[in-house]
């Protein structure tokens, strides 16, 4: 009797947790498919429409260009940060070079520097160079946040790879670079993939840099949300439709790395 | 010969990035923090004013307010996140279809853009057509017509809520990782001896999780100190200045009032706080690792 009660209690608790986790997301998805008049009622009984998605992609909102900006900024950031970080992570993981502790400490510490400190000088610099409101500016600043994090994550994954096969290949006369390319990187591929996706999510969701450094041409999706706040009030149904556009690609990626993610997180953070 | 230098060459690309995107701007804003520079008046930096910007900060009520707001926010959000994550991990480490399902969806709040989280909570707590404002009013009549985001304390509460909702899943993953590395033998032995669940958790599991909990608390503190996104999209710092965190205040000084010198000084105060915590954090990690290998 006591056992069944505990069992039921646990199930109820898990259900409650799932509801708390999913409800805000579900409500946004529902609102995105509501007509304006339904969006302001709490009714679940409404006629779904795709009109909001059509509206946000047309003038004056032009969500399409924001999607483009977000995709380009996040992709290029990943393509630059991850290879550089992977090489550095390998060096940190395998060699005991002079000053290694200091360098690693330096890189770890930069991860904790507030973004608002970095963005001030960049704003002034880009203004001087006439680079405000460009994707390139956003990519450069995003690298600051993402690179240390990815070094840290990939190092965790490379640490977990045994060195035996590397040593065997080196004895057979393979060069270190070859070993990295043909042995280590393939073995670390799942970890590197996870780190890349993680880095993509960070950049995709980045808000502060984009808010300050973009005006019109380089606006990314999270900043685009703010534009649905108009003199007519907040246009919730359009915000929700934009929210769905921000969320869906990221959710797919997140679920894809979910399994590795737990491991990578603990490897990176605890070690 | 080539092989001896290779470890350094491998570090070069990443190091250039870090140098150019972090170290250089840091130095730049450090120097700017000792200057007067009103961007609305002058395109170039004006003269050096020594530590005037810092002295001004020490007596300016809006800065002190943002420091206090940040302090309250950090304490509440860190405490709530760590406790909830630990509890959730203890619940979710068991096997079962519902456990697995919850573990999978746990990643969704974490993957959601914080700016969007702010927007969606703002919608849900809208007193007229917000689903949570109305839902809570229907269940608890005392909460009917509460102007959630227009009340300083409640607005802060909701700000904390959005942050806890966003970060608890990530911290739960960390706890689950920590729990998985604890040997099960002691726990099972205690269970056979008839120890209660509560005693097992507090007497056996939590002491062994000390390291993980510490790491979580420090990491979360650092993230909470940077709180910015939801302040913009949820409360706008209001009502009044009741949710104006330090990062948001610096943003206002720099990009609404364009006082670059003062903003840089404020940014460096925030950096100093974070550096202090980070150094402590890295030290702690290194000593934990020494303990683990010993």
From TrEMBL, chain A:
One of its GO terms (cellular component) is plasma membrane. It is a multi-pass membrane protein. Residues 67-257 form the ABC transmembrane type-1 domain. It comes from the Bacteria. It is found in: Cell membrane. Keywords: Cell membrane, Membrane, Transmembrane, Transmembrane helix, Transport. Coiled coil: none annotated. The keyword Magnesium does not apply. InterPro entries: BP-dep_ABC_trans_perm, MetI-like, MetI-like_sf. GO terms for biological process: transmembrane transport. The keyword Ribosomal protein does not apply. Gene3D superfamilies: MetI-like. The chain crosses the membrane at residues 12-33, 67-90, 102-124, 136-154, 183-204, 238-257. Belongs to the binding-protein-dependent transport system permease family. This is Inner membrane ABC transporter permease protein YcjP. It comes from Flavimaricola marinus. The gene is ycjP_5.
Automatic annotation (TrEMBL), chain B:
Keywords: Cell membrane, Membrane, Transmembrane, Transmembrane helix, Transport. It comes from the Bacteria. It holds the Pfam family BPD_transp_1. It is found in: Cell membrane. It is a multi-pass membrane protein. PROSITE patterns: ABC_TM1. GO terms for biological process: transmembrane transport. GO terms for cellular component: plasma membrane. The chain crosses the membrane at residues 7-31, 67-92, 104-123, 157-180, 200-219, 263-282. Gene3D superfamilies: MetI-like. Its main location: membrane. Residues 67-281 form the ABC transmembrane type-1 domain. Belongs to the binding-protein-dependent transport system permease family. This is Trehalose transport system permease protein SugA. It comes from Flavimaricola marinus.
């Amino acid at each position: 009797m006591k056992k069944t009660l505990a069992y039921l209690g646990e199930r109820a608790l898990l259900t409650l947790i799932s509801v708390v986790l999913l409800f805000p997301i579900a409500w946004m998805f529902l609102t995105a498919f509501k007509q304006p008049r339904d969006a302001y009622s709490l009714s679940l009984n409404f006629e779904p429409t795709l009109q909001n998605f059509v509206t946000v992609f047309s003038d004056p909102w032009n969500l399409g260009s924001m999607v483009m900006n977000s995709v380009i900024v996040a992709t290029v950031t990943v393509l630059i940060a991850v290879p550089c970080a992977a090489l550095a992570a390998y060096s940190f993981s395998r060699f005991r070079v002079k000053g290694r502790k200091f360098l690693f400490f330096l890189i770890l510490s930069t991860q904790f520097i507030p973004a608002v400190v970095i963005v001030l000088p960049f704003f002034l610099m880009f203004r001087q160079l006439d680079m405000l409101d460009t994707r390139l500016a956003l990519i450069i600043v995003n690298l600051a946040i993402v690179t240390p994090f990815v070094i840290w994550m990939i190092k965790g994954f490379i640490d977990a790879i045994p060195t035996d096969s590397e040593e065997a290949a080196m004895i057979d006369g393979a060069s270190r670079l070859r070993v990295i390319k043909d042995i280590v990187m393939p073995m670390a591929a799942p970890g590197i993939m996870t780190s890349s996706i993680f880095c993509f999510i960070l950049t995709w969701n980045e808000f502060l840099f984009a808010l300050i450094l973009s005006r019109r041409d380089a606006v990314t999706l999270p900043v685009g949300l703010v534009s649905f706040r108009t003199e007519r009030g907040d246009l919730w149904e359009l915000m929700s439709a934009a929210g769905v556009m921000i969320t869906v690609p990221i959710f797919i990626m997140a679920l894809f790395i979910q399994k590795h993610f737990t491991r990578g997180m603990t490897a990176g953070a605890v070690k | 010969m080539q092989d001896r230098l290779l470890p350094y060459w491998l570090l070069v690309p990443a190091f250039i990035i870090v140098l150019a995107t972090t170290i250089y701007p840091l130095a730049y804003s450090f120097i700017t923090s000792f200057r007067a520079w009103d961007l609305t008046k002058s395109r170039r930096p004006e003269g050096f004013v020594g530590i005037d910007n810092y002295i001004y900060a020490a007596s300016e009520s809006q800065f002190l307010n943002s420091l206090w707001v940040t302090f309250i926010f950090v304490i509440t959000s860190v405490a709530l996140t760590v406790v909830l994550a630990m509890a959730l991990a203890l619940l979710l480490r068991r096997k079962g279809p519902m456990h697995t399902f919850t573990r999978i969806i746990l990643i969704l709040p974490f993957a959601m853009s914080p700016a969007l989280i702010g927007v969606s909570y703002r919608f849900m707590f809208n007193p007229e057509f917000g689903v949570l404002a109305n839902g809570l009013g229907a269940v608890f009549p005392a909460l009917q017509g509460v102007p959630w985001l227009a009340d300083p304390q409640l607005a802060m509460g909701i700000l904390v809520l959005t942050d806890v909702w966003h970060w608890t899943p990530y911290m739960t993953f960390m706890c689950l990782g920590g729990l998985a590395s604890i040997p099960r033998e002691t726990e099972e032995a205690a269970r056979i001896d008839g120890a209660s669940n509560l005693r097992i958790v507090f007497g056996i599991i939590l002491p062994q999780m000390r390291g993980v909990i510490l790491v979580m608390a420090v990491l979360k503190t650092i993230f909470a100190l940077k709180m910015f996104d939801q302040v913009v999209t949820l409360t706008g710092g209001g009502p009044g200045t009741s949710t104006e965190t330090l990062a948001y205040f610096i943003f206002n000084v720099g990009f609404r009032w364009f006082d670059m010198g003062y903003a840089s000084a404020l940014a460096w105060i925030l950096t100093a706080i974070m550096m202090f915590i980070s150094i402590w954090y890295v030290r702690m990690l290194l000593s934990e690792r020494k303990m683990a290998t010993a």
